[in-house]
Specification:
alpha/beta; eight-stranded mixed sheet; seven-stranded mixed sheet; 21 helices; 30 strands; globular; disordered N terminus; binds ligand 6R9; Acetyl-coenzyme A synthetase; ATP-binding
Length: 677
């Protein structure tokens, strides 16, 4: 077990950093008062505000409607609509619209492989050609408007190509992170009833080669057993064209002619095919993306056309102050919402040159990121606190030996950024001359909802600062009363913005219950937040049973159910323990069935169980034997006590323990922690 360290400080520091002066000239939002004017306008004249932004984009049919909604479960069904009646196509706006403006030969993406020297690039025109051809392939496989297509690909150019090809023909993509297990992939394919899967033979990360096709095959088998067969599996033979890390082998890959087709062969077959854009209604589905749910089962978050398009375009433009000559690098994976909105849709709609990186920041050494910054002259970088913390652990020389003078804006996303990481990012990476934008948002919000504007908002390390245009955040107490002025409570949003999710795929009830039932009339984020005297917002983290590991949300219930699926486990409780680099990490307490013992072999089996059911990211760092779990007399596990034990904080106030069915459990758990595991 790795050591669970005391929580790193999230203590606010009072320093305020003004926007870097050189950014102000020519910025889309320059100076705090411009932000304030625009923000006020976005609330007071919401319809004209958003129409003005949408006017930069192409609509086949216009609409005279703005945002329409019901956020109050007491008044009927929850709904959100934007520009009802308009017709558009998001892929068209990413590609043809830019090409028509003369940008066909601009680089859309540089691709950087895992191994040094492996690289490709693609222009807007080439990207359009590939997207059109793949969309013809999909059509030939029977994919029609509204059908779901599952995408299980590593960070290669074919990933955005696949997403955009779906968007072009109105198919709903469901991207599954390539680090997820075959069971996770299968459950997502089944939930969305996807009949086509796009995957790859494998990929490289650091010294390792991952056999993705094997996992896809296992998932296809599981789907068949559940009577939800995948009819076509399009396979990118990626490993055949890249360098393999030294010491690793090029794996043997199996193909099944009944299901598998070769991506490259299909693309040559359909090269030059006309595959017209499908004009989509404003509220037709664009994509679904699964995110952890506190009950364990992931939720398919649905985003639609006009609203997501306008919002991803606007947030990318303003938060990163995107300009024509930018080279923008978002280190996220397209398997997460950050990759959807800020690698693919937002940047492409802004005609930005982006970077797609297959590898990891520490391969071949911890200077890789800064090597990339120097090589591509990156101007705007967007990453996660967990990556910053992991790189802080190495000598500064890994950063400073590369030229970072191109950098202007440094973004952070995924979890609250602790001030030490903020300051390192600012001082060491950004040489104290770049703006830091700590962007708070969620899969559900589609794009940033609380974030600084780089040339306008003074920043405070650890605070996501102020709301984006059109977003009206409120802090409410446990009774649902708004807290005015400084205070702390539950972070809710009072009205919709165009990019907010529209439903949980196939489960409108769950949508209403999860986000709108706790505080009627508000969208509830699931996070806690504090507002300071300046009106700045400090997101304090999840207040529900979700945990944030390296910026990724995981459900404690989902990990628990993976553990209890093992025949030796009677009961399991998982809590978040603080971790220096990952922010937090799953810490599991398990009680075993009679006769079972928590041997190192069993611990390995339990870890494997979680790895196969969910994925490597969810594997607990610590698994502790617990003869019993602390429960109230009504049988509820008291997680706050387990959390204190996981934190190793013996002096902590455990609160009232008299309601426990058996108080002696606590002493036993402390003892078990001593023994370690
Ligand atoms: C974009 C993304 C959403 C949850 C969210 C919150 C946490 C994200 C944050 C942040 C504080 C930030 N979170 N960004 N907390 N400051 N800048 O990460 O989406 O994977 O759905 O996670 O992540 O807890 O509720 P998603």
């Amino acid at each position: 077990m790795s050591d669970v360290k005391p929580k790193f400080g999230l203590n606010p520091i009072e320093d305020v950093f003004e926007p870097p002066a050189p950014l102000l000239a020519g910025a889309h939002v320059s100076g705090l008062s411009s932000y304030q004017d625009m923000y006020r306008d976005s609330l007071a004249n919401s319809e004209t505000f958003w129409k003005r932004i949408a006017a930069d984009l192409y609509f086949e049919n216009a609409s005279d409607r703005g945002l329409e909604w019901n956020f109050d479960v007491r008044k009927g069904d929850i709904f959100i609509r934007f520009m009802q009646g308009a017709r558009t196509n998001v892929a068209y706006n990413c590609l043809e619209r830019n090409i028509a403006r003369g940008l066909g030969s601009k680089i859309a993406f540089f691709w950087e492989g895992n191994e040094l020297g492996d690289e490709r690039k693609i222009t807007y025109q080439e990207l359009l050609d590939q997207v059109t051809t793949l969309s013809a392939v999909l059509r030939a496989k029977g994919v029609k408007k509204g059908d779901r297509v599952a995408i299980y690909l590593p960070m290669i150019i074919e990933l955005p190509v696949a997403m955009l090809a779906c968007a072009r023909i109105g198919a709903v993509h469901s991207v599954v992170f390539a680090g997820f297990s075959s069971e996770s992939l299968a459950s997502r394919i089944i939930d969305g009833k996807a009949r086509v899967l796009i995957t790859a033979d494998g990929f490289c990360r650091g010294p390792k080669v991952f056999k993705l096709k094997q996992l896809a095959d296992d998932a296809i088998k599981l789907c068949r057993e559940q009577n939800e067969p995948v009819e076509t599996c399009i396979v990118v033979k990626h490993l055949e064209r890249v360098r393999i890390p030294s010491g690793a082998d090029r794996p043997q890959v199996n193909y099944d002619d009944a299901v598998d087709v070769d991506y490259t062969e299909e693309m040559s077959r359909f090269a030059g095919a006309k595959s017209p854009v499908e004009w989509m209604d404003a509220e037709d589905y664009l994509f679904m993306l699964y995110t952890s749910g506190s009950t364990g089962k992931p939720k398919g978050v649905v985003h639609t056309q006009a609203g997501y398009m306008t919002y991803s375009y606007a947030t990318a433009k303003f938060t990163f102050d995107l300009q024509d000559d930018d080279v923008y690098w978002c280190t996220a994976d397209c398997g997460w919402i950050t990759g959807h909105t800020y690698i693919v849709y937002g940047p492409l709609m802004n005609a930005t040159t982006g970077i797609i990186f297959e590898g990891i920041p520490t391969h071949p050494d911890p200077g890789r990121c800064w090597n990339l910054v120097e090589k591509y002259k990156v101007t705007k970088m967007y990453t996660a606190p967990t990556l910053i913390r992991s790189l802080m652990a190495f000598k500064e020389e890994f950063v400073t030996k590369y030229d970072r003078s191109s950098l202007k804006i440094l973004g952070s996303v995924g979890e609250p950024i602790n001030p030490a990481a903020w300051l390192w990012y600012y001082k060491v990476v950004g040489e104290s001359r770049c703006a830091i934008v700590d962007t708070y948002w969620q899969t559900e919000t589609g794009g940033h909802i609380i974030t600084p504007m780089p040339a306008a908002t003074p920043t405070k390390p650890g605070s996501a600062t102020l709301p984006f245009f059109g977003v009206e955040p409120v802090i409410v107490d446990a009774q649902g009363q708004e807290i005015e002025g400084p205070g702390e409570g539950n972070l809710c949003i009072k009205r919709p913005w165009p990019g907010i999710m529209r439903t949980v795929y196939g489960d409108a009830d769950r949508f209403a219950k999860t986000y709108f039932a706790s505080f009627p009339g508000y969208y509830f984020t699931g996070d806690g937040a504090r507002r300071d005297e300046d009106g700045y917002l400090w997101v304090t983290g999840r207040v529900d049973d979700l945990m944030n590991v390296s910026g990724h949300l995981l459900s404690t219930a989902e990990i628990e159910s993976a553990l209890v699926a093992h025949h030796s486990v009677a009961e399991a409780a998982v809590v978040a323990a603080p971790h220096d680099i990952k922010g937090s990490t799953p810490y599991a307490f398990v009680s075993l069935k009679v006769g079972a013992k928590l041997t190192p072999a069993l611990i390995d089996e339990l870890k494997l169980m979680v790895r196969t059911k969910i994925g490597a990211i969810a594997v607990p760092d610590a698994i502790q034997y617990s003869p019993g779990l602390p429960k109230t007399r009504s049988g509820k596990i008291t997680r706050r006590i387990l959390r204190k034990i996981a934190e190793g904080d013996r002096k902590a106030d455990l609160g009232d323990t008299t309601t426990l069915a058996d108080e002696s459990v606590i002493a036993q758990l402390w003892e078990g922690r001593n023994g370690g595991c």
